[in-house]
Amino acid sequence: MILYHQTLADKCNKILEVGVGTGRSSQMFTQSFMKQGAIYINTDISEKMIEIFKKNLSVTGYDAEYQDTYTEILPEDDKKKIAILKANNEELPFPDEEFDCYISNLSLHIVNNHHNQLLEAYRVLKPESKAGFTVWGDRSRCRCFTFLEESLKKHGYDYSLDPSIAKSFEISDPVQLRKDTLAAGFKICKTFVVNLPFASKNPEDFLNFMVKGSFDMYAEEKDFDDATKEDLWNKVSIDFDTQFGPDSPEIPDFEQIVIIATK
Question: Into how many domains does the chain fold?
Answer without folding.
Answer: 2
